[in-house]
């Protein structure tokens, strides 16, 4: 007499693999249902794990949002670093790398990242984290562009504001990816050229 087929035993994931799985499920949840639907309990349900597993990784919803932002920033940073290394050392190429990389990273994450950023902004601790990552990005932009002119902090902040607004407009379909990249490129070139005067 044969026994009915039993399901294969579940393989226990390493902590790193479990974190990656939970982040991927969280991004999908935000994509499908929005940031407001993102709770630790809902994430556990969708990931097929118990709540203590999710709480062990993130502790709070704020911790989960922080981890999502860090995940996004790590990908954005790697794309940026790779593109800068592959570019030629001209103002136009460096400015293009910044413009194209920023827009592409936001579009890669789609409409989810604005919701995560908005949720991050609602907490002073999380706003501080966002500002720290922005400062690191702005320092990298300054390093990439400073051989071509004086790069002011207000100019960098204006560039970042334009990058966020244009990327979000492209993510929502208001403008095209190419329009966002070209407008951001023009903004960066104008900022650098003002520093040459």
Automatic annotation (TrEMBL):
<dbReference type="GO" id="GO:0000976">
    <property type="term" value="F:transcription cis-regulatory region binding"/>
</dbReference>
<dbReference type="InterPro" id="IPR001647">
    <property type="entry name" value="HTH_TetR"/>
</dbReference>
<feature type="DNA-binding region" description="H-T-H motif">
    <location>
        <begin position="39"/>
        <end position="58"/>
    </location>
</feature>
<dbReference type="InterPro" id="IPR009057">
    <property type="entry name" value="Homeodomain-like_sf"/>
</dbReference>
<dbReference type="InterPro" id="IPR050109">
    <property type="entry name" value="HTH-type_TetR-like_transc_reg"/>
</dbReference>
<dbReference type="GO" id="GO:0003700">
    <property type="term" value="F:DNA-binding transcription factor activity"/>
</dbReference>
<dbReference type="Pfam" id="PF00440">
    <property type="entry name" value="TetR_N"/>
</dbReference>
<feature type="domain" description="HTH tetR-type">
    <location>
        <begin position="16"/>
        <end position="76"/>
    </location>
</feature>
<keyword id="KW-0238">DNA-binding</keyword>
<protein>
    <submittedName>
        <fullName>DNA-binding transcriptional regulator, AcrR family</fullName>
    </submittedName>
</protein>
